């Protein structure tokens, strides 16, 4: 149980720090003329992440879930996702945010993991929301949160790509990508 509370606290603290970074980056971006898009779906993403923590805590503590024998697999995937998340954040620099900010005329980011595919940060989030519950045997949380998250990300990615294609060179850069 100590491991659960330690990881739970770590991930929760991590999210709080990331929100502070996102707020700072939002101020920098808007000062440069960036505009925010995708307001409508953002509140649902926030609600999903709040529900994630509540569901995980409930399923582990109330339903008494225990780590499976193969706990090392989701633990390893979680650690890889952490590395990917921070690689994304450092690659995007002040462009990284939990919201969608678009700076008209900016060039698409093609460094770090963005050299290989378009949305590596979302891959990290999908992996974390699946693997953290699986690490502790919280099957219901893993399934429900992952399904809702995939739907919300499909909405978010459409909004993000449309805004980037309209205001930046994103469409040109990624049209020629494999």
CATH topology, which one?
A: Four Helix Bundle (Hemerythrin (Met), subunit A)
The amount of helix comes to: over 70%
Number of helices: 6
The Rg value, from CA coordinates, equals 17 Å
What gap, in angstroms, lies between the N and C termini? 45 Å
**pLDDT below 50 for ≥5 consecutive residues: which ranges?**
none
Based on the coordinates given, report the CATH architecture. Up-down Bundle
Quick one: overall form? elongated
Major β-sheet profile: 2 strands, antiparallel
The overall average pLDDT, rounded, is 96
**Could you tell me the number of beta strands?**
2
Question: Strand order within the widest sheet?
Answer: 1-2
Summarize the structure in words.
The protein is mostly helical and 178 residues long. The protein has a single domain, classed as Four Helix Bundle (Hemerythrin (Met), subunit A), CATH 1.20.120. The protein is built from six helices and two strands; from the N terminus they run αβααβααα. A two-stranded antiparallel ribbon has the order 1-2. Helix 2 (39-61) packs antiparallel against helix 5 and helix 4 (120-135) packs antiparallel against helix 5 (139-167). It is elongated and about 50 Å long. The model has no long low-confidence stretch (mean pLDDT 96).
């Amino acid at each position: 149980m100590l491991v659960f509370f330690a990881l739970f606290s770590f991930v929760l603290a991590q999210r709080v720090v990331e929100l502070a970074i996102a707020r700072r980056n939002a101020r920098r971006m808007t000062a440069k003329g960036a505009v925010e898009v995708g307001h409508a779906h953002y509140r649902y993403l926030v609600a999903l992440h709040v529900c994630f923590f509540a569901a995980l805590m409930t399923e582990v503590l109330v339903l008494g879930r225990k780590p499976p024998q193969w706990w090392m697999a989701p633990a390893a995937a979680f650690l890889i996702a952490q590395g990917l998340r921070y690689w994304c954040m450092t690659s995007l620099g002040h462009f990284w945010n939990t919201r969608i900010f678009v700076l008209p005329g900016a060039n698409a980011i093609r460094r770090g993991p963005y050299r290989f595919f378009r949305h590596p940060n979302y891959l990290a989030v999908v992996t974390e929301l699946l693997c953290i519950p699986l690490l502790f045997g919280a099957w219901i949380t893993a399934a429900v949160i992952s399904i809702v998250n995939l739907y919300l990300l499909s909405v978010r990615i459409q909004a993000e790509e449309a805004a980037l294609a309209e205001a930046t060179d994103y469409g040109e850069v990624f049209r020629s990508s494999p």
